[in-house]
Amino acid sequence: MSTIDTVFTNAKLADGRLCDIGVSGGRIASIEPAGAKPATAPVVDIAEALLVASFVEGHIHLDTSFYGDKWIPHKPCTNGFDVHERVAFQAQNMAQAAPMIERARSQLELCVSNGTLQMRSHVMVDGSVGLTSLETILKVREEYKGLIDIQLVAFPQSGILKSPGTPELMDEAIALGADVVGGLDPGSFDRDVKGHLDVVFGIAEKRGVDIDIHLHDAGSLGAFTIEDICARTTALGMQGHVAVSHAYGLGDLAPEAAKKIAALIAESGVSIMTNAPGNHNFPPVALLRKAGVTVFSGSDNIRDSWWPYGDGDMLGRAMMIGYRSGFYTDEELSAAFDVVTAAGAKALRLEGYGIALGAKADFVTLAAEHVPEAIVAIPKGRKVFKEGRLVAQDGAVVR
Ligand SMILES: [Zn+2]
C-alpha cells in the first residue's frame, strides 16, 4: 500500500460529499468520508470549500497575446471581419510588442493562478516566422514544467498552401516538439479544402499526432469542411484524435441540419472547441453534447490583435458558454462546467485527469456551495494544487 504524503480534509466534492482526499506521489490515493479515519500524514484543511479538478484551457495562443505588455488598442477590419487582414494587423502589432517569452510567461501565470493546469496552445508556424515562435514557446513550456501541462499545436496562421514552405515547416515543428498539427480555414484561406487537409492529415499520419484545425468559415462552407474532416478522421481510424476549433458554421445551421451533422461529428469522434465568442454564431453546445459530441473550450485570444478581451479564467469562460447558450438549470450549468473540465480532458486525451483514485492530484478550491453556483458566481480566492502541491493562491502563483 502506498504511503499517503498529504491529506486534504473537509473537501466538498461536486456530488456534495464531504471527503478527505489522500495524495501519494502526486496522485489521489484515497477518497474517504470526512473524518472517517484519523490522518496519518500532514493535513491541508479545505474547510468545506468545493474541490474540483483543475481547468482545461483547450485553446489559447501563447505567442500572440499582449497580456502583461502595454495596452495595444484594437484595430477593426476595414470591411467586416477578414482573417487575412487580422493576420496583417497581428504582424504589425507583434513587431512593437514586448519579447514573446515575457508575454507567454505572463499569460501562463494568469492561467495557472485561475486554476488552469492543462493547456493546449496554438503556436504560429509559417513562412513569415518559421519555427522561431515555436522555439520560444518550447522554452517557456520547459520552464513551467511541473506547474502546468502544455500541448503545442503547429498552427499555420498564414495558410498552408498560400505560405511557401509551410508544409515542411509544420512537419519539422512536430519533430521539434509540437504535439498536434493545426490548420486554418482550408476553404476560405487557402481556397483548397482537399489540398489543405491532405497536408494536415498527411503530417498527422506520418508523425502519429493529433489534429486541431481552426475553422471560422460560416454556414455551408464550414459544414462542408467539417464533413470532409469527419470522413478523413474515420477513414484513418483517428476517432478521438481530431478537433475542430470554433466551427462557427455549426451555429449558422437550421436545427435539422445541425442535428444531422452533429450525428456525423459524434460518430467520427471529432471534438469541437468553442469559446462562445461575442460577435459570431457559435456551435450549439447542448445539441452537440446531446448527440454525443465532445465539446471543449478555451480562452482563444487574450488581449491580442483579434480582440481585447480574455482573463484566462476558464470558470468565467464556462459562465460565458452557459450565458450565450441560454443555460439556466443546474444540469445545464453543470454541462458548461464539464466543457471546461472533463470534456476538455477527453478532447486533449489527458492521462490521469479528474477527482478519482489514481488520478493526478491537480485540483482547485472554490468558495461555492456547488458547481452550478460556481458557474454563475465565478468565485475568486481560489487555491490551486498541482500534483498535491500548492501552486497558486488568491490569484497569484506561489513559488
Ligand atoms: Zn485560435
Automatic annotation (TrEMBL):
<dbReference type="GO" id="GO:0004131">
    <property type="term" value="F:cytosine deaminase activity"/>
</dbReference>
<protein>
    <submittedName>
        <fullName>Cytosine deaminase</fullName>
        <ecNumber>3.5.4.1</ecNumber>
    </submittedName>
</protein>
<dbReference type="InterPro" id="IPR013108">
    <property type="entry name" value="Amidohydro_3"/>
</dbReference>
<keyword id="KW-0378">Hydrolase</keyword>
<dbReference type="InterPro" id="IPR032466">
    <property type="entry name" value="Metal_Hydrolase"/>
</dbReference>
<dbReference type="Pfam" id="PF07969">
    <property type="entry name" value="Amidohydro_3"/>
</dbReference>
<dbReference type="InterPro" id="IPR011059">
    <property type="entry name" value="Metal-dep_hydrolase_composite"/>
</dbReference>
<dbReference type="InterPro" id="IPR052349">
    <property type="entry name" value="Metallo-hydrolase_Enzymes"/>
</dbReference>
<feature type="domain" description="Amidohydrolase 3">
    <location>
        <begin position="43"/>
        <end position="391"/>
    </location>
</feature>
